[in-house]
Amino acid sequence: MNNQALFSQQEPLTAKAARLYKWAGWMLVSICLLHFVFWSVVSYHSWGAWISGALWDHVDPETLAAFELNFEFWALPGSFMIPLLLLGLLITRAAQMRDRLPRYLGWSLLLWVLICSIILEPSGFPLGLIPAVMLIMAHKK
Questions:
Q1: Sequence-distant contacts of 51-56: CB under 8 A, at least 24 apart
Q2: Where does the sequence pass through the membrane (predicted)?
Q3: What was the pLDDT predicted at 95?
Q4: Which residue pairs, CB below 8 angstroms and at least 24 apart, start in 108-116?
Q5: pTM of whole model > 0.85?
Q6: Is the bond into 77 cis (omega within 30 degrees of 0)?
Q7: Do the beta carbons of residue 126 and residue 27 sit within 8 Å?
Q8: Position 103 pLDDT exceeds 60
Q9: How many CB atoms lie within 10 A of CB 71?
Q10: What's phi and psi for 58, nearest 5 deg?
């Protein structure tokens, strides 16, 4: 195998596949923004404690206050919201540039969303099924 074959460009996305990428990316961004708004309303009272270093304190984790502080941290800044937001933006950029993303991206997202949906219900995880399926369908176009 020569280097040219190894590093050759894939064919660009079709217009239909690019639309699927675009909508999947913007859906992921929207899901992240909805997540941010919801958890900001729920946890705004904890922000001062996070900034002051309360999560570093060696408090008894059995107390409800410590549990709530940790739970809200992992639901907002410690969640997958920021990486998922960046992924959504990356997907929309790939759509604009007509670049193909790896096939495993849609399948991995689908698997993660399915597992999380089964483990945690009710939740917003099932919303992630739509962009995951759109990414998978884009490879068939």
A1: none
A2: 20-42, 73-92, 104-137
A3: 96
A4: 109/135, 110/136
A5: no
A6: no
A7: no
A8: yes
A9: 14
A10: -90, 70
